[in-house]
Every structure is written in structure tokens, then in C-alpha cells.
Amino acid sequence: MSPQLQRLPRRRDDVRLYDKELRSYLVVPEEAVAHELNPTARAVWELCDGTTTIDELVDAIRRVFSVDRAVAVADVVTVVDQLEAAGLVGWSDAPRKTS
Amino acid sequence: VSLRIVLAEPRRLLRDAFAEALAIGYGFEVTATDGETASTLLQIERIQPHVVVLAATVRADLVKLCERLNRLFGSPRVLVLDGGGSDEGLLHAIESGAAGYVTGHGGLAGVVEAIHSVARGESVVPPAMLGTLLRRLIERQREAARAAERLMALTPREREVLSLLTEGRDAAGIAAVLFISPETARTHVQRVLRKLGVHSRLEAISLVATTGLADRLERMVERSAL
Which end of chain A is more exposed for a tag (fewer CB within 10 A), N or C? Predict the structure, then answer.
């Protein structure tokens, strides 16, 4: 299994989740930016608690949506990468080694 | 082609109103049942519906309905309709094999959209409830992994004893099956409980049932008996 799937994403404590009708947003206090989330991204965000591995997330999503593992891995990794790129998520474990 | 629906709702007034709204307002072919397992299964066999809409209040065996639909179509197409919506209800629906779970918060239009999604083979979960559902599924998975580890720590004889416990046998019954004394059976039972980290036989039985270990235990006992 890829080491990346054993990583533990952790959301920033100061970021707030807001739901408005069917849309969800992440808002960072002091910043005038709201990040819109789709339903899967919203669920992934909730589970970025620093104790849940990406692999566990993938398995749970497959259980609900009956998708291929490769598709679920790609979806979850893409969401976490985007959240990390936006500075909304960090990692509880050691940083990945880059080649 | 209009979608065929079996609507299972035990409350007569709601059933009539809902069936009429879905048929007249949205063009579905609706067959309504009272939600009893036998009558609902009968209608499923007769109508071969695209989707079964099951009110959360029905007494039907959800697992049995999903299995029957799976045999008929290759995939379960049960949509559970839970007016109020609850995390427990959602977990039960998904673990039973339902394809979707919809609350009344989106009104009739929301239910209709969910029916179409399930008919297309999609899974439907209220977005705001998805995170909690995934968390519960992950917790269940972790519990099952821990329970499996504890099961592996049992000796073949202790697994036999656990298997007999899950069949509802007491120490005397276990002793009779295994040709050992009741005292020895009681000793085995106490060891099993200690190794599983539970305090009673009921807890042990519940652990096996809720963590999906029954099949694994059965295979282990069969193998150890060879």
C-alpha cells in the first residue's frame, strides 16, 4: 500500500465550516475568502481529524458509493491535496519525502 | 419510460397521498404496500420495480429486501425515506445495503430527485450527514479489526466454545457437544470472555454479531475441526 494512504490529514482548528442551503463553505477568520466544498469534499474535511488515514477514508467512501478503489483513492487524494494547497489542511504525521 | 416504484409505507393516509403525488405529479408507476416484509417482497417480485421507496417506519426486514433486489437486478435499489432523518437511521440503511437515504428536508422534489438518482444506479446520502456516516463506518471497521485480532488470540478449542455460545448454548450445552465436563466448559467460557475483553456471554455474542465476525469464526471452527 502506498505510504501516502497511511498519512493522517489534519484540518486547521481555526477554519469554520458553514452550510447554506445545499452548499458548504470553509471560511478562515481574518481572511475574506470562502472555499466552496462539494459533498464529498465536505465529508473529507470533517474526517481530516489527524487520526483517520486516507486509506480508511477511501474504504468508507467505497462502502457508501460502491466505486472502484482507484476512483475513490483519486477522489480523496485530490480533495486532500486541494485542501492542503489552500492551506486548510496539514498533517499529523511526518512530512512526505519528495524525490 | 416511466419508472416503476414500489412504495412501502405503513401509514395509510401518508401512503395514499404520497403514492398519488408521485404518480400524478411526477408520472411514476406506483404500487403501494403496507411495508410488511412478505407483502413488499411479493410486490417486488410482481412489479419488478426500478426503485423501492421504503419509509423508515416500516417493519420490513431491510436486509432481506436488499438481498432480494440484488438477486433480481444485480444491485440493490432501495431508497429509505426518513422524514426526520437520523445518523442511526442512515447507518442502518447503508449497512443493510440500501442504495440511498433521503430525508424530508428537500420536500417532495428532493425525494423525486433521489428516486431518479437511485434508478440511475447512484448512491444517495444527504451531504450534511455524509461525514458522520463515514466516521461511523470507519469506527465500525476499526472495532471489527480489533475484534478480529482478539479472535485470533483464541485457541481452536476456545473458538469452538465461542461458536457454541453464539448458538445460544450454556455451559452444560457446550459440555455436552464437546464431551467435556460442565466445569471445564465454564473455564473455557471465562477464558474466552477475558480474551475478548467482554464481561458477559451476551457481550461476546454481540461482539461477534456487530463486528461481522460470525462467518470468520465459523470458517475457523470448521478448519480447526478438520
Answer: C
